[in-house]
């Protein structure tokens, strides 16, 4: 289907375009809110700046598609393949992305507040300065993801794979990282105050300048040396001890 026909049918009130093939089409700036594109094929489609709020793109093929600055608030994108897609500046607030494939995709400056990314595949993705506050990333794969300067306040990251992820200067205040795997992650200058890291794995982690004030590390597996320059005010340690004010920067082995 050509873009002109799609837009004409949408304007006439049609909303069901399930299974449609729009690969290589130019739909930049198009308004298609609320449309049903279940199992659609949109490879290399140009949707830059498009308004797609509330669309259903479940199980769709959206590989290498341009969604820069697109509006996808509340969209259903579960189990869709976004590998290599450009989503820089896109608004995905409240979007449903469970089990979505976003490997090597660009989500720089994207807004994903309250998005459901449970079990999503985000390894090697670029999320620099994106907003994932209160997002559900439980069991998500974020291996080697670029999370520099990302907002992850109150995010749900239980059981997530953050091995080798770069979380430099990231804000994770109040986040839940219970049983998360942060092996070889970079947490330099990250704010992890009031986070739950119960039974998490923090082996070979870089934590210089990180803030773990009031964090819960009970049962966590970690290398003691990586926390030597970490702020540990009122932090619950792996053995259950809580550091008092005067113990603020004591080594964990004390």
TrEMBL record:
Keyword Metal-binding on entry: no
InterPro entries according to UniProt: 5peptide_repeat
Keywords: Repeat
Pfam families xref list: Pentapeptide
Name assigned to this protein: Pentapeptide repeat-containing protein
Native source organism of the sequence: Petrachloros mirabilis ULC683
């Amino acid at each position: 289907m050509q873009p002109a026909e799609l837009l004409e049918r949408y304007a006439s009130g049609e909303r069901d375009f399930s299974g449609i093939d729009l690969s290589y089409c130019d739909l930049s700036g198009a308004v298609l809110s609320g449309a049903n594109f279940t199992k659609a094929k949109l490879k290399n489609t140009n949707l830059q700046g498009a308004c797609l709020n509330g669309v259903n793109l479940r199980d769709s093929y959206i590989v290498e598609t341009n969604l820069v600055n697109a509006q996808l608030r509340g969209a259903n994108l579960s189990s869709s393949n976004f590998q290599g897609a450009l989503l820089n500046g896109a608004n995905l607030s409240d979007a449903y992305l469970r089990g979505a494939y976003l490997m090597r995709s660009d989500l720089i400056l994207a807004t994903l507040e309250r998005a459901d990314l449970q079990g999503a595949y985000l390894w090697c993705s670029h999320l620099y300065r994106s907003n994932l506050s209160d997002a559900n990333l439980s069991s998500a794969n974020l291996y080697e993801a670029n999370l520099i300067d990302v907002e992850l306040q109150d995010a749900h990251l239980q059981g997530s794979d953050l091995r080798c992820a770069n979380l430099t200067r990231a804000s994770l205040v109040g986040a839940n990282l219970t049983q998360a795997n942060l092996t070889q992650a970079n947490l330099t200058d990250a704010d992890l105050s009031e986070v739950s890291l119960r039974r998490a794995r923090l082996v070979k982690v870089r934590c210089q300048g990180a803030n773990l004030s009031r964090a819960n590390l009970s049962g966590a597996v970690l290398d003691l040396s990586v926390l030597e320059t970490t702020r540990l005010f009122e932090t619950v340690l792996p053995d259950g001890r809580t550091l008092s004010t005067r113990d603020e920067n004591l080594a964990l082995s004390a």
